[in-house]
Each structure stands twice: as structure tokens, then as C-alpha cells.
Amino acid sequence: AQKVTQAQTEISVVEKEDVTLDCVYETRDTTYYLFWYKQPPSGELVFLIRRNSFDEQNEISGRYSWNFQKSTSSFNFTITASQVVDSAVYFCALSENAGNNRKLIWGLGTSLAVNP
Amino acid sequence: NAGVTQTPKFQVLKTGQSMTLQCAQDMNHEYMSWYRQDPGMGLRLIHYSVGAGITDQGEVPNGYNVSRSTTEDFPLRLLSAAPSQTSVYFCASSYLGGGAITETQYFGPGTRLLVL
Predict the structure, then answer these.
(1) Three-class DSSP labels, chain B
(2) Which of A3-7, A8-12, B36-40, B84-88 has the lowest mean pLDDT?
(3) Per the CB < 8 Å rule, is A100 touching B99?
(4) Which range (A78-82, B40-44, B88-92) has the least confidence?
(5) How far does A43 lie from chain B, in Å, by closest CA?
(6) Scanning every residue of chain B, which has its alpha carbon at the shortest distance from the alpha carbon of A4?
(7) Of A81, A62, A72, whose CA–CA distance to A23 is shortest?
(8) Is B83 buried (19+), middle (13-18) or exposed (0-12) by CB count in 10 A?
(9) Residue A31 carries which DSSP code?
(10) Burial group, residue B37, by CB count within 10 angstroms (0-12, 13-18, 19+)
């Protein structure tokens, strides 16, 4: 069965620290997509990244980086030199590329607090 | 592009009242969906649609109806509101990737609903 686990419910760091948010997934499919979304205190859901299962290259976007490892079924998200504006809930999600798949599988989210 | 818009932003209902949450997108996305978000429970899919005239149930459809008469609009109807439907409701849309949900979903700003 499909499943996404974000084991860290809450993380608290001090500004400028690096922080890694874990995402572990389960899927039977060989073709699938993984996503990360950010939900700041204002409440909207903001798309961060989409990665397909055939692309294992790490991705870097400014202070954000993602480490995709199929061997451990993980798609972890690292924020370098965290800032107060990074405080948010972060969600990881999975979608299998099955013809009749109409649902994303969501993790429960990790709440990140970056303190000044 | 306005993206995904939702109205109202906040609503208070009494038990037994009915109402419609509006959702519209201007990106010509085939797929539209409704989620509810409750503390500690992540995002749960209520209903979704893969095109005008086609809707289907998600994980938690009871108490909600949907219809899709146009590509742009996907309203969610609460037939007889109950306190258990107090939640934040998000509408999302995306392209369909070969028929499956593999493309990025874009979310509206959400509707906070309180049922007394």
C-alpha cells in the first residue's frame, strides 16, 4: 500500500542552523512522483518541488535542497542557514503513475519553528 | 492568472444549515479536488473531478456533494452542516499526467468553516 511517513512531528531550531525534514514513502509502483509543500502560518499551501522516481539527482534551490534515495525510499528536505521565515508546516506527498490513480498520499507534516 | 480562488474565506454555520464553498481556476486544469485539513490529520481528500461532468469520491465524502459543470468551477456543497465538518477546506487543481495525478497540484487559499 502507498504510505508517506514524516516521523518528525515538530522541530525547533535557532536561526542560521541547518535542518533536515525526513520523508519516507512506501509504494509498489516503479514510476511515481514525490512532492513537498510548505504551509506557512498564513495557511496557504505552497508548492516547493516535484520529483519523479527516475531522477535521483539531488536538487538545490537557494537554501533549500532535496535528497532523493530510492534505496531507502526517502526524499528528505534540508534547509541551510534557516531563517524565521522558514517557520511553517512542511508536507511530503506521493503519487503513483498508475492509469487510474487520482489521489495524492500525504504525510502528516512536520512543523518547523525557527527561532531568532 | 488568478490561479485557484476560493470563496468565502471564513464562514460560520449553525448545525443543519447548508452552504456551498466555491472554487474556481483559470489554468485550464482537468483535475480539481477538495481537501479538508484538521489538526493532526493532514490533508484528506473529499471529492475530486477529472473533467466537466466527471466527479468521484475521495477518502471522506460523507456529508458533501460536488458537481463540475465547467472546467473552471468545482463547488463543494454541505447539505446539512454538522460540528464534525468544522475544518479548513482547500481546493486544488492540476493537469492530468497521462490520466494519473502526477502533475503539481496548486491550492486555493482555503476556507475556514465553523459549524456551531
Answers:
(1) CCCEEEECCEEEECCCCCEEEEEEECCCCCEEEEEEECCCCCEEEEEEEEECCEEEECCCCCCEEECCCCCCECCEEECCCCHHHCEEEEEEEECCECCECCCCCEECCCEEEEEC
(2) B36-40
(3) yes
(4) B40-44
(5) 7
(6) B42
(7) A72
(8) exposed
(9) S
(10) buried
Residue A40 has which C-alpha cell? 506557512
Place of cell 465547467: B70
Q: How far is B89 from chain A (nearest CA, A)?
A: 11
Q: What is the band of B99 on the pLDDT scale with cuts at 50, 70, 90?
A: low
pLDDT tens for A100-112 read 677 889 999 999 9
Residue type, A101: N
